[in-house]
Amino acid sequence: MKFTVVTILPELVEPALTAGVVGRAREAGTIAVTTINPRDFTSDRHRTVDDTPYGGGPGMVMKPEPLLAAIAHASTAHRIYLSPAGKPLTQARIRELAQLPHLVLVCGRYEGVDERVIEEAIDEEISIGDYVLSGGELGALVIIDAVSRYVPGVLGESTSVDDESHSASLLEYPQYTRPLKLPSTRDGELVREVPAILTSGNHAAIAAWRREQAIARTAVRRPDLLARFTPTVADRKRMARPVDVGSRTHLALVHHPCVDRTGKVITTALTNFDVHDLARSSMAYGLAGYHVVTPVTSQRDKAAHIASLWMEDASGEHRAQALRLVRAADSVETVIANLTAEHGSAPVVVGTSARADAFSGAIRRTAPELVAEARENPAPLLILLGTGWGLAEHLIPSVTRVLAPIEGAAGWNHLSVRSAGAVILDRLFGRPT
Ligand code: 9D3
């Protein structure tokens, strides 16, 4: 494998390639690294490689001609420009790059390079992560190091390159070596001991412990990785059951206090479909209760009647189960009082609205933020859905959280309460797609 680094700072790149695995591979001739300096392809007295940006702005830009000449000199092998605007580097891409015989790694300095260099002479742009470096050289070194590990003969016989499917799914388990007991330098009382299981000689138990450790630290440090991880049956038993927020969440369909199109406070009429479609959504997402809120006694009776009809008609049927979640209450305050009595703590009351500026006194939360917060707080969640033109915010001071409105790309967000409710529940409790 051959690497050519195009850089105006060869003195930054070269010493980094003399030690360790890469240094030894270079000495053995398993890999070859050379640098080419665009400054050697200038013709003016000052050997100028940069110039001011057209259109103004801070800093300097690398001139195209010396850079193009340097890249041309490097060969027509696969050419990578290291750039903060590149595609993020992954282990999967490293493994693919390792299949190529020669990589040209072009490093920018200053604010970057003239865009026409990229159009003329670059095959792909790669970033090594979301932080700001002062140039591409460290990125080139990262690629050389990571790619070299895949070149046959670079790693010793005993060390194998991490299998991508493995390294991408879980973080590593903690490692220990001698001594068995290490006195802490931070705490005079403490002696740090190697976990006893590792010296037990029970290889199956050690493997299980390591797997559990790997899963536990991935859950804490890299929830993004854990979300893509497919646990085995044994892993499922090992994994702490996630805190289930849905089973202490209640939905309330509020018919009063709501507003009409003019902002006047009104009481809306119950609709059959709302009662039973939202009951089914509540059931599908594992909620604890669905409360139909109306101060009108006959309307509450109607809600109970709709629920009971379905339950009697179709006991054992899926719909019947869902309608068991249905409860009627005369006010939001009554629902709050009931939940407080049942759960032993007052619910966190969440407002919803089609308007972005609703419930200005409440903390605005995205669905994942609300769930993350609820995992830490054992109180029940009560989500309020308005009818008519929405909830009469000023009459519901108990709302301390508000969810962002549901919006598609069309900018038209007049959903039915049943649709909005279903989307909200999926955002909160649906499995990631
Ligand atoms: C003004 C905007 N900045 C872009 C985020 C300017 C800028 C910052 C850093 C321009 C060039 C650079 C130099 N960085 C690299 O050359 C670089 C880099 C990086 O900064 N982060 C992650 N990966 C890479 S690869 C090359």
Question: What do you see in this structure?
Answer:
The protein is 36% helix and 18% strand. By secondary structure, the chain is an alpha/beta fold. It has 3 domains: 2-161, SPOUT methyltransferase, trefoil knot domain (Alpha/beta knot), CATH 3.40.1280.10; 169-174 and 201-240, no CATH class; 245-429, Alpha/beta knot, CATH 3.40.1280.10. The strands form 5 sheets. The protein has a 7-stranded parallel sheet with strand order 14-13-10-17-15-18-16. It is elongated and about 90 Å long. Residues 82-84, 108, 111-112, 127-129, 131-136, 139 line the site of ligand 9D3.
Which helices and strands appear, and what pairs or packs with what?
Layout: E1 2-6, H1 10-13, H2 20-28, E2 32-36, E3 50-51, E4 61-62, H3 64-74, E5 78-88, H4 91-97, E6 102-107, H5 115-121, E7 124-127, H6 137-148, H7 164-167, E8 181-183, E9 191-193, H8 203-221, H9 223-228, H10 233-238, E10 249-254, E11 258-259, E12 265-266, H11 272-284, E13 289-293, H12 297-313, H13 318-323, E14 326-329, H14 332-343, E15 348-351, E16 363-365, H15 367-376, E17 381-386, E18 399-403, H16 417-429
Parallel strand pairs: 1-2, 1-6, 5-6, 5-7, 10-13, 10-17, 13-14, 15-17, 15-18, 16-18
Antiparallel strand pairs: 3-4, 8-9, 11-12
The site of ligand 9D3 has 16 residues, from β5.
